[in-house]
Amino acid sequence: MFLIIDALKDMETTNTPKIHRPRRSKADIEAAIQKAAITQIKKKGFARALVTDIVKRAKIEPIVFYNRFKNLDEFYDSFVKRYDYWISDLTRDLNKDLDTEEGYVGALHTVFDALLEDNLMAELLRWEIAEGTPITERTAKLREIDLSMLIEQFEQKFAAHDIDGVAISALMIAGIYFMVLHKDRSAFGGIDINTDEGRKRISATFAQIGRLLYRAHGSQERRKRLETCLRKEGLSPDAIERCLAELND
Question: Per DSSP, what are the bridge partners of residue 191?
Fold first, then answer.
């Protein structure tokens, strides 16, 4: 009797179709790992995402991950190099129009909007601030190198004037970073950039800063031209100084 039952079980097992998972290519697996990492980092941040989270979401065995990367740090090193590209592209785009007030204001908008839309980049900035690792130190330095082109351009534009365009812009960018990273904690200065009203206030402020910065630059340019004209007309240095002092009153 038992032999018959065992035989029937064997027949049932034999006749049960096996489920074959589709074989994934190397490219498919790598794409799955990248996609899973993006999801987990956006959810937990770089510091709290785990290999177990990534492999589970990518639907792979841990050995598949470790055949490619020695550990999570090595994966992050590769991952960050791949996804930290946007600041370089952004810098190249911003460089085109920074010589005008409209271009400058547009550049601030671009940085603000890009960080609001790209949670992954915001998490990378958060990680840089929170932890000093070889990866975060490298990305911070590379970002500074990328931004050095903008700094040089501003130094040249405002070099002859009593305006520190670089420091003003650094404070603006740092403020954008902080407000974006802080937006899910609380409003700052009563401004909640999670709302349309809050974003509009920031947008209006970009325009105000651009107007103050570039019009101050234009005012000093006109002052220089006036000084040159008065000198050509034969006014003495003292007379020129008195005339220019009138402009400041």
Answer: 188
3-state secondary structure of 184: coil
pTM comes to 0.71
**What are the angstrom distances between the C-alpha of 236 and each of 58, 222, 225, 241, 243?**
79, 19, 16, 9, 11
pLDDT in tens, 109-150: 888 998 898 888 889 889 988 888 898 888 888 777 777 766
Name which of 221, 208, 218 is nearest 168 in CA terms: 208
Alpha-carbon distance of 157 to 218, in angstroms, equals 11
Compute the distance between CA of residue 81 and CA of residue 138 in angstroms, rounded to an integer: 10
β-bridge mates for residue 188, sequence order: 191
